[in-house]
Each structure stands twice: as structure tokens, then as C-alpha cells.
Predict the 3D structure of the following.
Amino acid sequence: MFDLKILKGTIVHPRGRYQADVGISDGKIVAIADDLSTAEASKSLMVEGQYVLPGCIDSHMHLWEPGFVAAPDFADGTRTAAAGGVTTIIDHPLTIPEVLNADVFEQKKLLGERSSYVDFALHGGVGEDNLAELQPLWEAGCTAFKIFMSDSGSKVCALDSGKMLDAFRTIGAFGGTVILHAESNPMLAYNREQLLRQGRKDYMAFVDWRPPEVEIEAIRRALYLLKGTGARAGFLHTTVPEGVEAVMKEHRHGMDVWVETCPHNLYLTTGHLQQKGPWVTFAPPVRDPEQVEKLWSQLRNGMIATMGSDHGPIERQLKEAGLENIWDGLFGIPEAETMVPLMLNAVAKGWIRLEQVVSILAENPARIYGLYPRKGSIQVGSDADFTIVDLSESYRLHAAKMYTTCGWIPYEDWEITGKVLHTIVRGNVLVEDGRVTGQPGYGKFIRRGVQYPL
């Protein structure tokens, strides 16, 4: 007898799709068959005409519990993620205290287990003086080490080239993984000084502060320093096609490096910044439409391995502070609830294939961060995590109808096609027909396992 049966759905994996039923017991997939309709089960979910994806993974979330900014915690952030079809999240180390040692890592794990709706893993961070703490963090199960090349406003601070090289060598010595925020801090400091001297406070000053060159220089410098260190590395929220090309050139030459981008890097442009100002500020920033179209092309061509939301919701009043002076607004946007729907919309529009969505949002992040095959795959023995979607339903996005508590989204009143209907974690239906039915505290910490090269 199964705990749950999923019947008549179309299962999608990176290499194709097929119709099958799935049987689940004790949180695991125990059967995949043509017809399980007559098998006994405590609950059945009929999903004929719908697509059954491996549970989507958001490997780039900022839950900010405890502290950092007055914003979401594990409960709020993971409920939002579940509503958006995400079954596992990986939280970044920007908390107070920052996740710079194994003791804080263990404390944060307990916070997550207390209130998370979905399963979670944790990234650690690299600061000015915690090199000796990195291997204990790795042994505690962290998935990667975040390195900022620009000021983060925290102790996970901007590293100069010498300290970054030391970090790469230290992490490479025990086979660890680095994730990089690649923007050149010296260039940013110089640009800001010049713009302030000119009296610039208009919305476009934000992209003039962080132009493509800032990102390209940092990516190329990091790639040079990584060579020979043994560290594997991901370049996060990449916005510049030239940066993607630089990483993939090294990847083809044998370096274990890859690129992540985000939905807002693909959907928002400088035109939106001119209209919306602080509501669409994040780092790296929006790019011009030509660059965004090139980024879409690179995604279609398999040059971008993963996607993360970079979910960092900011309270409305902290955004509104930038309406008159762009420097006064805090940057960051809510994205966990819209990431999967926006990618489904891209499928419905014919911009990418559904199999590619499974690659970038399930299998690839699971393999990279040591969660595979427990996560990111529909196979017997894997966790029974599923994102079940309808590709035909069109609707409008409204913050008032969403679970995010910050009260706004950058896509207000956008019409999209493709909807998350059910989110299932370890056989438990957390979202049914678009409504969150799960409870805080259900989510479990997932310890890193084997990390696979792409």
C-alpha cells in the first residue's frame, strides 16, 4: 500500500518526458509504472494533462534569519518558495551572525528545522579571517562557500585578490566549492564617487554605478585566480553574456566552473529601471535589452547551468526611500514565488523547453551542490519531491494574491502562462491546487553528499 499515488501525469526529466504513475511510501519514490490505478493508497492525486517535474531547487535564497534586515525568516521565505513550486532551498550566509563557522552553521540549521516548510541546505561564507573555519564548515555539511568581490554590508565581505586566492587554495585543498558574487569592488567605489560628485541621483545612476565592465573584470580575474587551486566555482546571478562566455571557455578547457542566472536578469531591463526605479534594483543590475536577449540565447544553448531566485525581499518603505534619490533605496527583490512560474511562462512562449527548466532548476543544482540523487530526480529511491504544473493556464501576477509578506513584486499585473498547481515534499502535499496546505517545521536539513561536475 502506498502513502500517495500520483496518477496519469507526464513526467519530465532533462532528456525527455513520458506518461507514468508514481507510488510513494515513507517519503520516497518506490514505484514508477504505466498504471498504478488499482494499487491501494492512502491518498491519490489525479494529474492527467499536467506535467510532473522533479521538485524544483532554489539554490540562491536570502532568508536573513536571524537579522541582517527587517525582512523574512525561514517560515515566511519557505512558505513563499513552496507556493512557487520550490521543494528545496539553499540559504546564503548573510545573517547576523554570518555563517562563518560550524557553530553558527549548527545554530542556523536548528532555526530552519524549527520553522521551514520545505527542505533546506545551507551555504557558508568567507570573511576576512575565517580560513581556519572553512574545513569544519564543510565537514558540517555546508554546500558551498560564498565569496563577495564587492561590498556586501556584512562580514562576508569583499575580498581582495590576495585573500581570495588564499581562500581558493584553502577550499581547493579539501575539494570544496566556491560561489562568487563577481563585481569589482575598486571599480564600484570609483564609479560611485564620480557619480556622487556629478550630483547624480536619477534611476539610471544605478546601472552607471555597476556597468557590465564591473562584472566582466571580476569574472575574468576570479577565473585566473582559480586556475590550479582545485576549487570548483559557480558564478552567481550572472547578467553579462561576455561573462558567460568567459566561464564556459574555461569550462570547455577542463575547469569545474559554471554559471547561474536569475529570472529577473532575463525578464527585467534598463527600460524597467527607468520606469520603476528602486523597485527593480538588485546587484548585479538590469542590463539593456540586447544583452538580455543574448542571455536568453545562452540559456537556450545550455551555457547557463543553474537558476536561483536571489530572493531578497525588502520592506516597502525601504524601497520607497529610493524614489527621489536612487542611492537611498535598499536593493533586492522577492522572487522565490515567481521564479518557477516565470520559467513556465518562457516554456509556454516557446523561449526554452520544459526539459531545460528541469535541468536548471532541479537536476543541475542537485548535482552541483551534493543533493543528487536524493533531490533533483524522479527515480526509485529518491525523495518524493515534485513540482506539478499546468502549462496552459494564463493569469496575472498580483502581490496581494501571493504569499510573500513584503507586499510588492516587480512584476505587478504582468500576465503569464504556466502555473504551479501542487508542491510535494517527501510525499507530503504542501501546496494543493495553488493553495499552501503545509505547515512550518516540516522541512528537514539536507546534508551535502557527493558533488558532481557538470
Remarks:
- The chain has a mean pLDDT of 96.
- Residues 212-226 form the longest helix (15 residues).
- The first strand starts at residue 2 and ends at 13.
- The chain is about 30% helix and 25% strand.
